[in-house]
Amino acid sequence: MTQKTFDLYRCSPSVWAEKPWKVALELRIGAAYHAMDYYRTEARSMDSFLGEDYNELMRLFAESEKAVKFNQKLLKECYEAKS
Fold first, then answer.
1. Do residues 10 and 34 touch, judged by C-beta distance below 8 A?
2. From CA 21, how far away is CA 36, in angstroms rounded?
3. Kindly report the CA angle at 44 between 38 and 49, in degrees rounded to 5?
4. DSSP characters for the chain?
5. CB count, 10 Å around CB of 9?
6. d(CA 81, CA 75)
7. How far is CA 35 from CA 54, 61, 76, 77, 83, in A?
8. How far apart are the first and last CA of the chain?
9. Which of 4, 8, 25 is closest to 16 using CA atoms?
10. Contact 67, 28 (CB under 8 A)
11. What is the pLDDT along the chain (83 residues), one digit of tens a residue?
């Protein structure tokens, strides 16, 4: 597992590794939402909203948000291809 994957989802890819494709996408979307909540909570608990630590949390939040959108797009395409 790469650190990048953990940063996006705050869990190991083994959670969805053996799942069917659609289920895996749904799990990834849920995990990315949880990661966003984690980063938001951590950022709000900081003493200062200035500095590298806060900026890093906001960067990770934005990356997880992009992961949600990307996986939602793939899931939508999957359902559209089926109909």
1. yes
2. 23
3. 125
4. --HHHHHHHSS-THHHHTS-HHHHHHHHHHHHHHHHHHHHHHHHTSS-S-SHHHHHHHHHHHHHHHHHHHHHHHHHHHHHHH-
5. 25
6. 10
7. 15, 7, 22, 24, 32
8. 34
9. 25
10. yes
11. 467 999 999 999 999 999 999 999 999 999 999 999 999 999 999 988 888 999 999 999 999 999 999 999 999 998 787 66
Tokens of 28: 């990834």
Two structure tokens written together for 34: 């949880």
Domain residue ranges of the chain, discontinuous segments joined by +: 26-82
> How far, rounded to the nearest angstrom, does the alpha carbon of residue 45 sit from its chain's CA centroid?
20
Structure tokens at 15: 């959670």
